[in-house]
Design a protein that fits this description.
Length: 314
């Protein structure tokens, strides 16, 4: 049974990777202005009527459409590379900064107390409370007034600002964890023997500490990836998403929303949350994509840890 679960975990994670790499190529419908649907003739309550999108899920649009008539499934497939790719980049940046900091502090012993204090500060307060006030101010000033289409430089500026902020809030807890694990291995007899033979701290880190921590580093990376996705989803529900969108005006009401032209999941989730009472399938579809991705990663992580424990007992 464990082999079946382990194989299933690898199958699911590869499907997720496939969606990121090739989702835009296998989507059922294109996402461009030429595909916009103004109205369609449909049977409503036994009568033939002209109706405007959003359309609910049916045999043609499995997850329904948005206000432009864009297929939600196609948007989710096309947007996987933006959302998951952005989360991967943030996670990787956290490791690039936190891993060397933690390893050096753990082996040398200097800075561990400072990392402990910073870890308490950034772990005691939910990351959302750190990033939301800063992001909402920049978001409202850069994105909302213009209803930005793809290619506007302000989208890039906001994406970079959010990238830096999302990276920063995760550095110190991760560095503290790496420092604690490095300190643990630094006290092992094989490290003590290496020091007695004159090995410097960099050689100890590269030749002794990292090889013994490589599996833990992979586990920590997947855990951080889940946390980043969860934080991005929280921001989306509160109306903050990364890549902007085209302004869609409701006529005759003086009200407009931003609709993604790439299918980025946070954009769909934010838009769907606003429309949840009238068009619940939009937010449910985006929420399901987030939830399924997180569950797949967590299941894969759990199976990797289980396989690692089984090998350690053999």
């Amino acid at each position: 049974m464990s082999r079946i679960r382990y194989g299933a975990a690898w199958t699911l994670i590869m499907l997720l990777v496939f969606a990121v790499l090739f989702g835009g190529l296998v989507k059922p419908y294109e996402l461009n202005p030429e595909q916009t649907i103004q109205f369609e003739k449909r049977i409503v309550n036994g009568e033939e009527k002209y109706v405007t999108p959003p359309f609910p899920p049916d045999s043609r649009f499995w997850l329904g459409t948005d206000h432009r008539g864009f297929d939600v499934l196609s948007m989710l497939l096309n947007g996987a590379k933006y959302t998951l790719g952005y989360a991967m980049a943030v996670t990787l940046s956290r490791f690039v900064l936190a891993l060397p900091l933690g390893l050096v502090a753990g082996v040398r012993g200097r800075g561990r107390k400072a990392l402990g204090i910073l870890q308490v500060v950034f772990s005691a307060v939910p990351p959302l409370l750190f990033v939301f006030p800063a992001l909402v101010g920049v978001y409202n000033s850069l994105l909302i007034p213009a209803g930005l289409p793809p290619g506007n430089p302000n989208i890039f500026l906001f994406a970079v600002f959010a990238y830096v902020l999302l990276t920063f809030v995760g550095i110190f807890p991760l560095a503290h964890h790496m420092a604690e694990r490095a300190s643990f291995f630094n006290g092992k007899p094989f490290v003590t023997a290496s020091k007695a033979m004159g090995a410097g701290f960099m050689r100890i880190i590269v030749r002794h500490i990292v090889p013994h921590m490589n599996r833990e580093i992979v586990f920590a990376f997947l855990t951080e990836l889940v946390q980043v996705l969860f934080l991005m989803g929280q921001l989306a529900v509160m109306g903050i998403f990364i890549f902007g969108g085209a302004k869609f005006d409701f006529d005759p009401d003086p009200y407009s929303i931003l609709l993604t032209q790439t299918g980025e999941w946070c954009s769909i989730l934010s838009y769907g949350a606003v429309m949840i009472r009238m068009y619940p399938w939009i937010v449910f579809s985006a929420g399901a994509a987030f939830t399924l991705s997180i569950l797949i990663i967590r299941f894969f992580l759990s199976e990797l840890k289980g396989r690692d424990r089984s090998r350690a007992l053999q």
